[in-house]
Amino acid sequence: MNIMTEAGVEQKLSSGTNAPSIKMKGEKVSVHYGEKRALFDVDLDVREHQVTALIGPSGCGKSTFLRCLNRMNDTIDIARVSGKITLDDEDVYDPKIDVVELRARVGMVFQKPNPFPKSIYENVAYGPRIHGLARSKAELDGIVESSLKKAGLFNEVKDRLLESGTGLSGGQQQRLCIARAIAVSPEVILMDEPCSALDPIATARVEELIDELRQNYTIVIVTHSMQQAARVSQRTAMFHLGYLVEEGATDKMFTNPDDKRTQDYITGRFG
Ligand SMILES: Nc1ncnc2c1ncn2[C@@H]1O[C@H](COP(=O)(O)OP(=O)(O)OP(=O)(O)O)[C@@H](O)[C@H]1O
Q1: Which of 23, 47, 53, 107 makes an SS bond possible with 186, Cβ 3.0 to 4.6 Å?
Q2: Nearest protein Cα to ligand 1, atom 29
Q3: A single Pfam family, by name (predicted)?
């Protein structure tokens, strides 16, 4: 069943409840790096068309959990993941899953903008081309343009699509990376501290963009900024020493958390 939220966003409802449907689900997710355990039995749902913020002090496992969602931890030799993670009820760790396809469905934007040393056009066109999403040059041009528009960058770059992506400002580069993620039509976008290398104006622009993007995508963001989590997310999950301390509606988490560790962290008493 679909409803319109107050923000005009059409959301699917799980039958019989008022909650948006669960897009991804983590059950008893644990991660070891060699002998060291970095996550302990984390149960966390990611709701469709919402922004879920992962917060907590440095080293508490936020990025580790984020990377489990699209199996980026597979690229770390010593990382071992156990438990279960589903995307639309499909087990993402099932050996039958094509990891390249999974990472197109669950895209990622990193802390430091990392455009390829190629043109703006090529940065966005690369993914759709390798995934065979365009049948003609005109179709590819269309995907590049619409992805840049969705990332709020098109007007700034439309006259220099063939210039290098690395020549853009930091904030523009990050929006280019968001356009690159969008170009392969992901369902979920993971963002690992996407604004930490940006100035306040570029940060505000990316935060506005995140709010717009949730109409079409489900977003999980790791952030060290409490203000950012409060501004952009609907749900917040607090991690500490590898454990999920609590998870809930962002308003509640920032005004009346259940756990003292959350209270201490959001009021700056540790972290
Ligand atoms: N590639 C790795 N190899 C070994 N240990 C790692 C690796 N990545 C993370 N860890 C360890 O796992 C734990 C959790 O790290 P993680 O980066 O997930 O935390 P975080 O909450 O995202 O931290 P930060 O906020 O500082 O980015 C830390 O103790 C970290 O040292």
Answers
A1: 107
A2: 59
A3: ABC_tran
